[in-house]
Input
Amino acid sequence: MSELVLVLDFGGQYKELIAGSVRKLSVYSEIKPGDITIDEIKKIKPIGIILTGGPNSVYLPNSPKCDPKIFSLGIPILGICYGMHLMCYTLGGKVEPGDVGEYGRVPVTPVKKSKLLNGVKGHFSALMSHGDSVTCLPDGFHTTAKTSSCIAACENPAKKLFSTQFHPETKHTKGGKKIISRFLYDICGAKGDYKLNDYIDMQVKQVRKKVGDKKVLLALSGGVDSSVCASLLSKAIPGQLTCIFVDHGLMRLNEGDEIEKVFSKRNLRFIRVNAKERFLSKLKGISEPEAKRKMIGEEFIRVFEDESAKLGDIPFLAQGTIYPDVVESGGKHGAVIKSHHNVGGLPEGLNFTAVVEPLSGLFKDEVRVLGKKLDLPSSLVNRQPFPGPGLAIRVMGEITEEKLKVLRKADAIMREELDKLKRKPDQYFCVLTNTRSVGVKGDDRTYDYVIAVRAVKTDDFMTCEYAPLPHKVLSRISSRITSEILSVSRVVYDITSKPPATIEWE
Output
């Protein structure tokens, strides 16, 4: 078993980023509620603990707390933002509302030699997001870094307690990765024994032990998670997996054929259900986004039920659940970001006895790496994020086959052009707006569709900034779309960040 670092959650939006940063440094991490008991911590035997940020003020009576005994365990602890407040407040320091909050990149100045900040010279820029500040340190602590208005880092090295007001886990903090690495290796004494190859071997053994010689059924969407899940299961239980690929007719250009080509060659049974007409019929007359989502989700289950009923007795249902699905579906202190359909047990109405979830301990970037190790093509492993309802929520208003054809072609052109870039945005796609615009083609006046191009930069998909694409790239995309698609007269570029917008339009 790999060494483990516990990430204790106090409602911070970056908890997954913290845990993922630790794993990228070859140390295994798990996220647990902030009020985990001392006995549970001792049972887990972590080599270190990280306390996350959070939206609360630590001095308020209902703010989340940890067991004070955690600071006497002798285990190295790193408190980040609220985690720093909690550490200092619990041990007798003072936390108060600041005269001025700090948000965004802020200059930080090291003021004393520090094992955590070792090697940091002079000012550095760090991401801050706080209104409260530590105004008086507990006994035994000293300040190691400051900003113009707050204590930016402090520590009690004798008790292995370290804190930063800033967020070292984000790319906006210069040298943040090195700070986390020093905590893991210089302070916790990590060996760096977490490897994804070990994860594959472990899951293969666990799946074989759980499933035995029984059959397993997987709803294969063609997304990264379900595709890697299918590949891992075909390795663990060759010949025992059946994949049902429900082609709802709402996918991108040639995507269904590409998925079939990949999985028809694997040691599994692949069933493609061409249900386009069935879905389009159900979508007729529906334009409200949530109504479209709900209808597609329900119809997907009905199609899956119909097809699985033809296969006889299959006791195990496989799902591509990944670690963020589990975390987002309900933490102790954080709000439920979104409830995931594949978290929480067996779906009602389906005759399965158990669920197999071989990816439930992995983050998305780890799933992609695993996919490469399982010899999935890069076109699938690096597939652009794609919503379950597919193009239905990238076509504004009512869905028709004509609109889908227009959007597929436009989206393919846009992806083809952006795929040429050396530094690509994190996500990019086209939207067919519910607007028509006057145009001129040849000597004729037109009144045709307006396509919106969306490209964003993001670390975690919880927030994003629009990607400032070069004008020559945007010009080429616009020229190709309006020239190659006769029914499009105008292309616009969405420059809105999240918040206030979302990444998807619907």
About this structure: The domain at 394-493 is CATH 3.30.300.10 (GMP Synthetase; Chain A, domain 3). The chain has three domains: 4-187, 196-381, 394-493. Residues 255 and 261 are 10 Å apart (CA to CA). The first strand starts at residue 4 and ends at 9.
